[in-house]
Specification:
heterodimer; A: 115 residues; 6-stranded mixed β-sheet; globular; B: 114 residues; 7-stranded mixed β-sheet; 4-stranded antiparallel β-sheet; 0% helix
């Protein structure tokens, strides 16, 4: 069974600073990996996804993530954060192309932006 | 285009009362359907998922149940609510296949059990 760990519960960064949110997964085969964002009072929005191919994936709002199989990680990065990036971020892992399409989420990382 | 509807949006229920949350998807067929619960500090917990009518996989043993009576309808139920059932319940869908597995979420149902 797959699992996801987001070790940072809450991170605060200054506006304009770089950001890295950590995500580690456990899954026996090649996973499908996702990052979602949930802004206050809003639903969950997909930031980016990895299925195969290039291990560095680009997403919306200037975010990117890198799949590192050797480290079982899929960390989310942004070179310069904006105040509007304050939100909760969730990493998720899917079981890949399968009829049993179970998708498991991490516990989330809340991002605060310091003016 | 596909849309997902979830209701009710908010409800307050006494302990021991029944629960029924409904989710429907429009504009697609044979979706995979999911129920998640979001509780403070616990992220999104997968409760149930379904790959077809009458096919339900349960992830967390508890007093909740799910049913899929029609292709695009997914219902979350309880016969007797507990205080610990309070939370934000999200329905979501995907399509099976390569490049799929991207969840689209409903707006959610906030349940408070008193």
């Amino acid at each position: 069974a797959q699992s996801v760990t987001q070790p940072d519960i809450h991170i605060t960064v200054s506006e304009g600073a770089s950001l890295e949110l950590r995500c580690n997964y456990s899954y026996g085969a090649t996973p499908y990996l996702f990052w979602y964002v949930q802004s206050p009072g809003q639903g969950l929005q997909l930031l980016l996804k990895y299925f195969s191919g290039d291990t560095l994936v680009q997403g919306i709002k200037g975010f990117e993530a890198e799949f590192k199989r050797s480290q079982s990680s899929f960390n989310l990065r942004k070179p310069s954060v904006h105040w509007s990036d304050a939100a909760e971020y969730f990493c998720a892992v899917g079981a890949g192309y399968s009829s049993a399409s179970k998708i498991i989420f991490g516990s989330g990382t809340r991002l605060s932006i310091r003016p | 285009s596909q849309t997902i509807h979830q209701w009710p949006a908010t409800l307050v229920q006494p302990v021991g009362s029944p629960l029924s949350l409904e989710c429907t998807v429009e504009g697609t067929s044979n979706p995979n359907l999911y129920w998640y619960r979001q509780a403070a500090g616990r992220g999104l917990q997968l409760l149930f998922y379904s790959v077809g009518i009458g096919q339900i996989s349960s992830e967390v043993p508890q007093n909740l149940s799910a049913s899929r009576p029609q292709d695009r309808q997914f219902i979350l139920s309880s016969k007797k609510l507990l205080l610990s059932d309070s939370g934000f319940y999200l329905c979501a869908w995907t399509l099976m296949g390569v490049g799929a597995n991207v969840l689209t979420f409903g707006a959610g149902s906030r349940l408070t059990v008193l």
